[in-house]
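TA notes, week 10

Several of you asked for a full example with nothing omitted. So below is the full record: structure tokens for the whole chain, then the designed sequence directly under it. When grading your own attempts, check the secondary structure regions first.
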């Protein structure tokens, strides 16, 4: 592929992910629910914050931090694709990288990902429910609630 072709393809992809709905946002990362927390050793108050940018109604990126299930500080980057729409609800996946999970992964940066359901409350605010499946040494599923405010 020559340079001109790469530029054209890059511009087409940029336009595909950009719309009139592009906006910066702030997420407040809220509480979590662990499916098997009978011994109550996992943190359900995984509060934190993230900043991000929505390139369109269905694609966004964000970066932030929170105190994870093991009470450790976590920093992350993530991309969300939410192509399925049912009225004010969007469904899709979130994939990214996170720190703070050395007990489960042998590397300082671990993969993260799961399903995302987003409910638009207004044009500039939404609630997200995230489901993180069992991964690595983690033997519990996690549900997480986030609040988003777009600007």
């Amino acid at each position: 592929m020559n340079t001109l072709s790469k530029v054209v393809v890059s511009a087409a992809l940029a336009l595909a992910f950009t719309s009139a709905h592009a906006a910066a946002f702030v997420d407040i990362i809220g509480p979590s629910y662990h499916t098997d927390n009978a011994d109550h050793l996992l943190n359900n108050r995984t509060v934190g914050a993230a900043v991000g940018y929505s390139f369109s109604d269905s694609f966004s990126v964000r970066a932030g931090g929170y105190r994870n299930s093991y009470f450790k500080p976590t920093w992350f980057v993530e991309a969300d694709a939410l192509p399925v729409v049912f009225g004010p609800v969007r469904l899709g996946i979130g994939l990214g990288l996170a720190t703070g999970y050395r007990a489960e992964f042998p590397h300082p940066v671990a993969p993260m990902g799961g399903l995302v359901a987003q409910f638009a409350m207004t044009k500039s605010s939404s609630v997200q429910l995230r489901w993180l499946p069992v991964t690595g040494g983690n033997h519990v599923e996690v549900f997480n609630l986030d609040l988003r405010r777009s600007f």
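Strands lie at 23-34, 48-54, 59-67, 73-86, 89-99, 109-120, 125-132, 142-150. Use that as a sanity check on your answer.
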